[in-house]
Amino acid sequence: MTLGKAVGADSHKPDEEARADALWRWSDEMWVAWEAKSEARDENDISANDIRQANTHLRAAAADLDEEIPTGSHIFLVSGKSTVNESASALAADELSFALIDEVQQFAESVEAVWMSLQGRLMSDADIDVLRASVIKEFRESGVLPSTMLQALSGRLF
User: Fold this and answer.
1) Rounded to the nearest 5 degrees, what angle is found at the Cα of 30, between the Cα atoms of 26 and 35?
2) First vs last C-alpha separation in the chain
């Protein structure tokens, strides 16, 4: 299971060239595009090319899907690099944020822990609405709702 699916998104890797590394969609409510520079570490800053590439992901997804980008959608450029080239910062779209790989990993571990704690309850014969409410409550209390993730990780704007 992917992290996107674990937080309730339709999650996939677009097939076309020059697209996001992952696209998460909550139907027409919100999209999150991911550009991962996971092999990059602190040798250099995040470059203008990295930012230019990430800037296009939501527009490309909208074109591929023939849909409008939902308001509040976001792009995350995830990297092991901890700094952004000063001149490159000015190129970043408003919906683009920078997140460290470690922060995303920590979020993923929190989501996994929530699902592990829910495992027994989900195997019960409880009504689907009761189960849904239980999942939402657990996600909210653990701070791993998609909206919480967006707030936490989007704090590092360019």
Assistant:
1) 95
2) 31
By C-alpha distance, which of 111, 90, 107, 115 is closest to 154? 107
Taking alpha carbons only, the member of 93, 87, 90 closest to residue 60 is 93
DSSP label of 68: P
Neighbours of 126 (CB within 10 A): 13
How far is the C-alpha of 63 from the C-alpha of 70, rounded, in Å?
A: 13
Residue type, 111: V
Overall average pLDDT of the 89-118 stretch: 89
Query: Residue 133: its pLDDT value, please?
Result: 86
CA atoms within 13 A on the CB side of 157: 8
CB 153 within 8 A of CB 97: yes
Return the higher-pLDDT residue of 21 and 47. 21
pLDDT tens for each residue of 25-65: 998 899 999 999 866 555 667 888 889 999 999 999 999 99
pTM, 2 dp:
0.84
Q: What type of residue sits at position 157?
A: L
